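Checked the freezer inventory, then went back to the computational side. Two predictions to log before the end of the day. The first one is the construct we discussed on Monday; recording sequence and tokens without edits.
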Amino acid sequence: MDSELPPLLVLGPPAVFNIFKSQYPHKYRFLNAFSSDLPLLQFLQTQNTHPSSVRAIFCNQRQLVTADIIRSLPSLGIIATSTVGYDHIDTTECRRRGIQIATLGSQFAADVADMAVALLIDVIFKISAGDRFVKKLVPFKPWSFPSDSKLGGKRIGIIGLGRIGAEVAKRLEAFDCIIMYHSRNKNPSVSYTFYSNVLDLASDSDVLVLCCPLTEQTKYIVNKEVMLALGKDGIIVNIGRGALVDENELVQCLMKGEIRGAGLDVFENEPYVPKELFSLDNVVLSPHAAALTLDCFMDSCRHVAKSLDAFFSS
């Protein structure tokens, strides 16, 4: 019976939730808190569920899993998120309580890296802007729509040479790009030039690609000073988290021509996107969709189910 299944509190909801629910209806009693405007404890009452019976949360970045939420669930033991990052979860409270955080790890790495390269190519060759240009083209009007430059030989500064950053580097090496990087620590297994300072990396780069997690230390790791160091020919690609970049300063730098362009899959205050970016042909925008493929969804569901199975069977 459904009442005998372990309750799974769903917040967000995760983009993969409908697929996950259809695949595992026999494993969990889904508590869809995202569909209710009630405070959490009141919602649980409507579900005839005592807070102490909730041992697992399934979430994404759309809803913060705060210390208050965690404290209200005394038996909580695992938070499974359908994201690679976990900045939407109060990790301090989780550590204090000994609660597991199950992320997707490297599940999305290849797909996110593909998106990073696609955004960069689009910005350099003005593919999206060219598409709009062609669709508005007046017959017999002379065609004059040059791209900015070529991709080959570009100096690529990767901020965060983890799983995703390494995949980005591998792809851009195939275009004869020069790879440099900044991370918390130098990686002795790679030959790329390491920079301990983001400002120095920006000064020596044509492109900055942000792949690192969002933490207190990395918030606004690309600020106005870094953007100015990147320079008028520089491009920023962000497939990490929106707040890695000072978005207000980015908008100003793009509008004033202080950097050449940007490819953005993430934004500081999602789902809000600064309207000033909409009319800029040197900006390519994507709705946090780097990993929104059916293959990724299926892999994500399996990964989350495996994490939950391991928890409930322990």
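The second is the one RB wanted added to the comparison set:
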Amino acid sequence: MGRRQNDSESSRFISLSFLLAGFISCVLVYTVLSVVLNSNTNSEGSNFEPLTLAEESNDGGCCRGIEKLELWGAAVKWGSDHKFNSSEECCQACKAMCTGIDGPCLCDTWVFCGNKKACGSKFGECWLKKQKDIFAPDRQEAGNHVIWTSGIIFGKGEGIVGLETEYGILRIKLFPDCAPHSVAYILELLTLRHCAGCQFHRAEGRGQLWDSEGNHMEKASFGPPFAIIQGTLEAQGTAFKKIPTEECPYIRRGSVAWVGSGPEFFISLADHQEWKKAYTVFGSVLPEDMQVAEKIARLPTKSDVWNNIKVSVLEKPVPLLIQRLDEEWGNLKTNVKSD
């Protein structure tokens, strides 16, 4: 995919050859990840930024929150009598009350004080709360003066948003415990009356490289085509703030992830372990809705070149609208697999 780098001089020693081959492979992998999802900076209307590789996560699971944010809500456990040593433990305590086994979540919000100096006697307090509307969590305050870290939890069948297109609705299960900043941005978009400028503009099917379940075919290349549909989630007239790198698992069929720090994003039509753990994944398309993504991937395209990589751009971009879906979807299945 990227331009292959070759040695101009042959090595006399086998060990040196192996070292050089390893170096070249690393360069190629980095080059591919840096350009596959980024447009040529000279292309009209392009404002894409280079990808930076995220470090692999070894925390064994997701339980993230947003620092310097205090969420309000009805308390189900008072922090003064409920203390932990870390925000992860506080988050897990909320999750334990949101299993879906005994009905609706009893806890969907956690608030933790983890800075010993700033918190003082409140250090370790873990407040567990319940929102009136989890799509619009009640913010008490935010800013550098705030001593709290807060997060939200979506139970089974909750936290589903829809990307509405003329070809159907893509229902997406959001991951606030893995990508809280990303989900907070999506929830902000839900408050807008429109999402003018939000659209899909690139579409590449699976070709003969991946099967219908997203598995890579033996001995096949890794693209092009790259088995994705790509677009932007930036509403015109609304200032966009770069999203920090969050949880970066392997890309699976149905993964919804940012390109760099957004607002460019993509939905994967296949498993992409060759991309390593390089993209923040903030949601997953429900399996039964992947047919909509496949339909968009089959629309007429024209060829373009982004950073020396051949890509397929939609002849007519597909506008999309983000909508909240309040109906609970029971024990829904997502495309998430354990790594």
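For RB: The radius of gyration is 22 Å. The CA atoms of residues 286 and 333 lie 7 Å apart. Let me know if you want it refolded.
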